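Hi there,

I know you've been waiting on this one. I reran it after we fixed the sequence typo, so this is the corrected version. Both the input and the resulting structure follow.
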Amino acid sequence: MVEINVTGEVVTAYLSGELDHHTAKVMREMIDNAIELNMPSLLVLDFTGVSFMDSSGIGLVMGRYRNLQKLGAVLHISGTSPNIYKVMKLAGIEKLAKLEGRQ
């Protein structure tokens, strides 16, 4: 569901599968653990492998944003499908993080 890659002060979380109420908890815990261990200046959430996302995905993004604010770190979201990009844009995520969709 989540593969974590750490390069210097950048933590990248590669999300995959469905991001819903059942999977969000495990994803949150893995990402939060990586943040706590590595204290990054940048967290990248890569949604390239996400096939479905409900409102739990917005909650996951918002919670990680709040955690990063405490560290003075930045959040980037990449690889979103057109549908996920639209949902995130409607939720106002681009005001909190750099938001990039895939072509």
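Quick highlight: The chain is about 45% helix and 40% strand.

Best,
R. S.
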